[in-house]
User: Fold this.
Amino acid sequence: MSEAPKDDRLIVWFDIDNTLYPASVKMAEKMREKIHAYFLELIISSRKRGDTPPSDMDPEQEAEVMHTAYYTNYGLALRGLVLNNHNVDPLDFDRKCDGSLPLKEMIKPDPSLIKLFNDIDRSKCRVWALTNAYITHAERVLEILQLKNPKESKTNDISEDRVEFEDQIEGVVYCDYTSPKFESKPDPEFYRKALIQANVTDPSKCLFVDDSRINVEAAKKEGWGRCVHFYEPELQSPGDSEQDKGAVEHDVVVISNLEQLRDLWPDIFKKAV
Ligand SMILES: [Mg+2]
Assistant:
């Protein structure tokens, strides 16, 4: 991970998954299927080896229960696997889960999103990504969306149809699965490390957008200046759909479209000529 030079500009942090593309692509559901398959394989092989006491549950059920418990208690299923000593290789997990998603079939570059990024005035503001994914997935997504050319991971396939595009995102703070007790959002430590990595000394200079309310609240608690919850009401259950666009709740603004950032944060966008 490279450190950014000292910089007094504001910094806007974007979450990646389900923030830079809509939840309607069902990425979260696909991820969940892959992770379920991983848990299932783990349980079946552990039973074969006789490593686990006999269970009343069938493996499918046990996988579901374990996955849900780990996700709920640790924020990320993988953290549960690592912290409960399942002898899992996090990079194998990443390859079989996020790494096996057919991203190119699921997401496409969105010209209006690229324009939104391009319209951010870089003399006033830096733009970074803050994700709970590993760098490989983060870079695959950002490359497909044409927001950032891959730098860190070496595993991206260099396809012949590679398109040239400008970097809209300067740096990526990701969940480092290779570190033994890695942090992720919403751990306060994850946000603090992000500031160190981007060389930010004043958290009030941070602007943040995430589709997870709990991640947004955590940033707010860390003193991050302007925190926005990206929420797509049409995709939620009917009872939840009354949410006001741009409504302020507990000091957090809720938006349903990233274009709303132009009105919300006019100071970070280039002035129209
Ligand atoms: Mg997200």
